[in-house]
Amino acid sequence: MTNFQLKHWDHLEDLDAEAARRRARRRDAPPPRRWGMLRAYYHAYRDAWAACVAEAAAHGQRPVRWLCRGFWSSAIRQVPSTSAGLIIFELIRRKYGYDGAGEVRISKDGYDILLN
Predict the structure, then answer these.
(1) Cα 30–34–39 angle (5° rounding)?
(2) What is residue 60's predicted lDDT score, i.e. its pLDDT?
(3) Counting beta carbons within 10 angstroms of the beta carbon of residue 80, is it exposed (0 to 12), middle (13 to 18) or buried (19 or more)?
(4) What is the pLDDT, as a whole number, of residue 62?
(5) What φ, ψ does residue 13 adopt, rounded to 5°?
(6) How many CB atoms are closer than 10 A to CB 44?
(7) Whole-number CA gyration radius for the chain
(8) Distance CA 98, CA 104 (A)
(9) Would you give per-residue pLDDT tens digits along the chain (116 residues)?
């Protein structure tokens, strides 16, 4: 899905310019049409999807398969670090856990950290 996000990211500058044009028009003219920016976002997503479909076709793949390429290698690379972070969080939570006292004080190296 990173591929789609990158394609859509390219359209965000256009959306910012569209929002600036709408603000300028709003000062000088009658109220704009309702849902104008929502429509602009819809078109940006539609254009990003069309670009992804075209690039997938150029590589001879279906769009969903092309968008999900590299998923497993990313998952294998990211899962261990996420697991390590969760284990460390759980160890700290158990050591300094909240047991109904209302506040927890951690004293380390002459500093007191108060959690409430």
Answers:
(1) 125
(2) 93
(3) exposed
(4) 92
(5) -65, -40
(6) 18
(7) 25
(8) 7
(9) 677 888 888 778 888 888 888 778 777 766 666 787 888 888 888 988 999 899 999 999 999 898 888 888 888 888 888 999 999 988 887 777 766 556 777 788 888 887 76
C-alpha closest to that of 95 among 108, 82, 84, 80 = 108
Burial class of residue 4 in the structure, from the number of CB atoms within 10 Å of its CB (0-12 exposed, 13-18 middle, 19+ buried) = middle
Q: Where are the beta strands (DSSP E) in the chain?
A: 104-108, 111-115
Distance CA 33, CA 52 (A): 30
Q: Say which amino acid occupies 6.
A: L
Q: Phi, psi at residue 63, to the nearest 5°?
A: -60, -45
Take residue 45 and report the two structure tokens written for it. 């997503």
For residue 103 the two structure tokens come to 């506040």
Written as six digits, the tokens of 28 are 């000088």
